[in-house]
Structure formats: C-alpha cells, structure tokens
Write a structure and sequence with these properties.
The structure is a homodimer of 225-residue chains.
Chain A: E1 21-22, H1 25-34, E2 37-44, E3 47-54, E4 56-58, E5 61-67, H2 71-77, E6 82-94, E7 102-111, E8 114-116, H3 120-134, H4 147-152, E9 153-159, E10 163-168, E11 187-195, E12 199-200, H5 212-220
Antiparallel strand pairs in A: 1-10, 2-3, 2-6, 4-5, 5-9, 6-7, 6-11, 7-10, 8-9
C-alpha cells in the first residue's frame, strides 16, 4: 500500500480535506483494530446496500462471517464489489457558527472484493479472531465451533490493499475567524464509551462466577468503537 | 410503509432471523432519531462505496449534507442508488460457545435515492436539524449560515419509504442448549456512552461560560448512538 497521497489509487484518495487522509498500513490497521462494528456496502442488482457486520483483522485480511443462507453473504462470496468502513466517533465539535459544527472521528475504508475462506485452519483462526475481538481471552473459555456450526458459517476475507483512513480531530475551525469574537462557547464535547454492569443470561446456572476475561476487560479497557 | 413482514418489498425484508425485523414507521424513526452517524452506500462506477455521514430526520425525510465539491455528494445528488444505515450497538453477547457470540444492536436501513434540496427555506430547516441533532438548543446559540456557506453546501434528502429496522437484544441463544451445562459465565456486557469533560477551543476568548445547551446535555442526556 502506498504511503503518500499521490501514490494512492483514486478510489481511496481522500479528496475533501486532504490533510485528514492517511494511507499507511499502520493507520489502517490501528482503526480496524480499535473498531467493533463495520458497515459493508455492496451492490444487489440495481440497489446499493449497506449492512452492519462484526469483523476481525488477522494480518493482511479482514474477515466477516454470516450464515451460508444469507443473501448478503452469498453476494459478497460471489465477489460483488464491496467496501468495508469502520468509523469511531470521539466527540461533538461545537463551533460559533452552525456551518462549522462537526464530529471528531477516525474512519477506515477498505475496498473488496471479499473471497470465500475454504481452508479449515484459516476458518478456525478467523472464528478465534471474531471471539477475541469481542472479548480478549474469551476463545479459551468457550466451546469452540463444531463441524455443524462450521458448516453453517460462511467466512469471507478481504485482502487489505486499497484502503484509507480519514481523521477529523481537534477543535472547531472558526478560532481564526471573525466568529471567534462572538460570546458563544466553542469547543469539543468528548463522547466516551464504557462498559456497564454485566447482565447474567437468564439461564445461567447459579454459582457460576464472572469469567476472567470479563473481569479483566472491566478492569483495564474502554470498549472498542 | 408496510407494517407487516409479508407486505414489505424484498430489498428491505429482514431475511435472517425474521423475528428481529420491524417495518413500522415509528421503529424506523426511533432508531434514526437516536443515532448520530449514518453510513451511506452508493455505487461509483464499478465500485461500491461506504462513507460515514452526519444526518438528521425531519418528518418523512432524512437529510445529509456536504460540500458541493465532494464527489460522493455529486454522485448522490445525481440520484445514484443509495442506502443509508444507522446502527446503535448496545452490548457484547457472551455465550458459552464461540458460535453464539454476538452483539446487541438496533440498526435501521433506508433506501434512496437522494435528491437535491433546492428550496431555501427547507435548506435552512435542514441546517437547523443537523445542528439540533448534534446538540439540542444549539441552533439559537450560534450564527446561522450565511449566503456563502449555503452556496457551498449541498443538502440532499432521502424520502423514507423502503426502510426496515433490525434488532438483536437479550441474552445469548444457548440458554436452552446442552452448552448451558458448562461452567462458563454467559450474559451481556452492556456498552454505555457518556459525555466527557468539555474541551474549550484553543481560541476561546477568556470569560466565556459553557453554553446552556451543553450544560443541559451534560445534566440530562446520554449521547446518541
């Protein structure tokens, strides 16, 4: 992947606000690894469709999964043009003018197509990555997929190639404008994510303690985007 | 818009997990109004593209906006097939098996196309809606758009017609399975959003107090999705 703006293919070049664009692989991986949910765009006949999907990155690949009976999964497996986007919103940007109001965010866009993953070991590693992305340490605590579950699940991979990151950060853009003379407070209102109190499953057997993975997460980490 | 599953057009019908689909207008509006960020899918030549956008609903229309110089905005303004999706993630669903791990979420999907908004009064009302969606009460505190800003901004509207909501809620799906006999904690880890401490703009004049709208938001409300 190219690291400079002029080297990057037109479809991934950040055109508006070019200073906000990043094309290096470390920036792409960083946003992918901090996110939780992707939105995946693809064509379905004459329609454009945008669906939310869980995902995980392993090395140069971004994996998604779904039922083998899902229409979206089937279309993506057939190699439909696709774009996976992950956006983390950090704060509300409050300016003195309505026009300069915005949001601070990191967003990564990676172009497909996706391809079916057939190798059984890679499929299992992708399952592990999905589980570990939701909750690090969880894979070793839970029952791993059996043959029936693996058969019912299509796993698709997107090779990270054409990808870009767009970032909006910092305060409002009107600090240097005549609007800064106004009597209006301006700045950023951060949006913060945290975990609430774990809710046991209704069918949880009495006496089972909170998993080590959950306790570690509550002690150490903010939620992914 | 149809309220029953069998009345809804194929492209909006929730096919996987049909119990999770809702098609009534109140459910659609509810998720749109609670969300902050949309992802918009459209075709650009042979590519499918998915971009994050701020948006606001007024009545039967969802508005987005962008620079008149933006390629995405131009394509959408020309009536490209489009899909706007807003997803609110509420929690991590932690099961006893890797297979049943999931996330709880509300997601709304609304199909375009978008159309350019030309009426000056409607354009101003859309601007007001964008500002009020970020921060209720903000519109009356800030300088409203001038002629130059209005000219530089394309406002696009999607008429809410074909739309659906998909919801995943509650605990893991393995309470009734043999896996429930395992010694593994299972349940939901809620994801909670809150606002952090407001950061003044570097150029904020000394002595300007926090706006009433910000104080009210910090006192009363959780952030939008």
């Amino acid at each position: 992947m190219a690291g400079k703006r002029n080297d990057v293919p037109p479809r991934v070049r950040v055109r508006r606000g070019p200073k906000k664009g990043r094309y290096d692989r470390a920036s792409v991986d960083d946003v992918l690894d901090r996110g939780l949910l992707a939105h995946v765009a693809f064509a379905d006949g004459d329609d454009a469709v945008c669906i939310p999907m869980l995902y995980a990155r392993v090395g140069d690949r971004v994996y998604i999964h779904g039922s083998t009976k899902s229409r979206a999964v089937r279309l993506l497996a057939e190699g439909a043009p696709a774009c996976l986007t992950v956006t983390l919103v950090h704060g509300l940007v409050l300016a003195r003018s309505a026009f300069e109001h915005s949001a601070n965010y990191d967003s990564v866009m990676a172009f497909g197509p996706f391809a079916r993953v057939l190798d059984e070991d890679e499929r299992l590693r992708a399952f592990e990555a999905f589980t570990e992305k939701l909750l690090p340490g969880r894979w070793d605590e839970v029952r791993q997929p059996n043959a029936k579950e693996l058969k019912a699940t299509e796993i698709l991979a997107l090779e990270i190639g054409d990808a870009s990151v767009k970032v909006r950060s910092g305060g409002p853009d009107d600090d240097e404008s005549p609007d800064a003379e106004r009597e209006t407070w301006a700045g950023v209102l951060p949006i913060v994510r945290s975990y609430g109190t774990p809710t046991p499953a209704p069918g949880l057997r009495p006496g089972i303690e909170l998993s080590e993975s959950v306790r570690r997460l509550l002690a150490l980490r903010a939620p992914p985007g």
